[in-house]
Amino acid sequence: GPSEAPAGSHLPVLSFAERPKLPDNYTRDTWQKLHEAVGAIQSSISIKYNLEELYQAVENLCSYKVSATLYKQLRQVCEDHVKAQILQFREYPFLVHRNDSLDSLLFLKKINKCWQDHCRQMIMIRSIFLFLDRTYVLQNSMLPSIWDMGLELFRNHVISDKQVQNKTIDGILLLIERERNGEAVDRSLLRSLLSMLSDLQQVYKESFEQRFLEETNCLYAAEGQRLMQEREVPEYLHHVNKRLEEEGDRVITYLDHSTQKPLIACVEKQLLGEHLAAILQKGLDNLLDENRISDLTQTYQLFSRVKGGQQILLQHWSEYIKNFGTTIVVNPEKDKDMVQELLDFKDKVDHIIEVCFQKNEKFINLMKESFETFINKRPNKPAELIAKYVDSKLRAGNKEATDEELERILDKIMIIFRFIHGKDVFEAFYKKDLAKRLLVGKSASVDAEKSMLSKLKHECGAAFTSKLEGMFKDMELSKDVMVQFKQYMQNQSDPGNIDLTVNILTMGYWPTYTPMEVHLNSEMIKLQEVFKTFYLGKHSGRKLQWQTTLGHAVLKAEFKEGKKEFQVSLFQTLVLLMFNEGDEFSFEEIKMATGVEDSELRRTLQSLACGKARVLIKNPKGKDVEDGDKFVFNGDFKHKLFRIKINQIQMKETVEEQVSTTERVFQDRQYQIDAAIVRIMKMRKTLGHNLLVSELYNQLKFPVKPGDLKKRIESLIDRDYMERDKDNPNQYHYVA
Questions:
Q1: Going by CATH, does the domain composed of 656-734 fall within 1.10.10.10?
Q2: Which residues does the UniProt record annotate as the domain Cullin family profile (predicted)?
Q3: Per-residue DSSP letters for 498-538?
Q4: The whole model's pTM is what?
Q5: 551-653: which CATH topology?
Q6: 713, 732 Cβ separation under 8 angstroms
């Protein structure tokens, strides 16, 4: 709409040194002429005089000191005209109900025409009286410019009329309401009327904006209540977004810019702020379950607009992670997939944080805390399964992938591993599996093994990995020893026809193996003795203890179909060699001859007679080995490969192994608690129970229950490492 009208060029102020005398009635005649011209402008008829002439006339009058009179006369003419305008609205039927929108629209158009005419007329009038505007008016700071005087008259006589003002504002609000309901309305009419209200200082703020915001508030309060009931969350948020865009567009198109902040705040409050918790309760889990990326992005963006929005979204985010994570971890039936599911879940939440939550630090940190909370709800098992998962990836024959992919998987595993509290359980199982990979020759790649070690070292410190590193050193050293042993054997008078490879393991580095006394055949015993002589010759004073459980061999065999080679465990070897002496043996006979422990032997026979490659035939058939079963050599054995591995059995973890590994960790924890208590007491000499316990919590790297600590304290008191205070049972003293 029209604001300050264009001004024209700069005008020199003429000063007449000798003022020519004016004809007597010059002032009156000239004003007559000007008055006539103004009247013509106001009635929209053509002016009889040319504008130059009128302009010059104003200049002449000003130079004859009649400016003040001229301004008053002009103001009076304008005022009379504006006052006359109000009459057309007065006659206007005001009895009609506000909602008669047609009537309301006609009224608005009429008011708008009146305003547009007024502006157009004032621009023309001002261009004729420009000299007056630029001299006299400028010098009198109390006087409004001609343009402002026109605005003031229009405000005082037209818009300040209560009936006209109410009807105008009612009409505008009605149009906006209709537009919000989806109808097309005359936006340029709205723009013109609202800029009129803005130009007429304060009418916009005081009379329009307040009512407009109240109506907006009511509308969206009701709409929010209704749509929260009717719509699903994504649709609802979509609608909120649409409303925010529409209102933003309204500000740009026809509202005054100052309305933007309160208007948008009002929409945000009524459609979002009032429903934050309800929106999340109703729909967040679903969006996260189904990984609805764009809806989650929208949720984050909208919630970030409102005070407290991110905070409540954070809480629900954390709850979701803990609840979902708990379902992965606590159900023993899902153990075989636990780690893969944890990795997938972590990938999923990472992706959501990156794409939907703009990598927001708060969301990242809370996600980590939530993971740590749920993964430790079930002690020990996740740690054990993570170790086994790494084992499955580092084993030979793992189809996983390129080195890069394997690296990436190991990195992801480390992130999950970081959340675990009892890392000693992981270490125990990792060590047990690593030993098997190394000793049975099942490791996929030394590089991957070393890479995983350095990750563990970086995460848990050198003490954590020193034994694991020791295992690798033993393997390297054993290689060197074997090179020397081969040379030593070539110098023997009877080198024998068995190729012996020995791994020499340092007791403290490796898992503890229960020695099993089995009956080796004479050739093997003889070779063991040769090696022992050779080794102790180089390292006197060492004690060698043969471990049979992880030994393995390659056997050559002849079948009707031809020659084959078998890669077999030492126990499998002892069983198969018996069939060089006879065709059929019972379970009991085999047990006597080999000396292999009962359950171990049953597993061994099962692998030879009930697996994929059946070198032996069991009678009666069946998948379990029972007392009294008989075994026969299978001469018709067929297989597409020449060398066949049957010793995977060695890699399989038995229930006993699982239990004993876990037991050993607990045993070790007892020692660590004892050592920590003694260390603390030795330093402090005297300490209260609560302080001792909190100090222990600081030092121990695994989760402990207060009850367990109490037991260890009792045990140390019994063993005289410390004693209770005579007067205060909650005080302990160190006993040197």
A1: yes
A2: 381-609
A3: ---------TTTSPP---------HHHHHHHHHHHHHHHHH
A4: 0.80
A5: Ribosomal Protein S5; domain 2 (3.30.230)
A6: yes
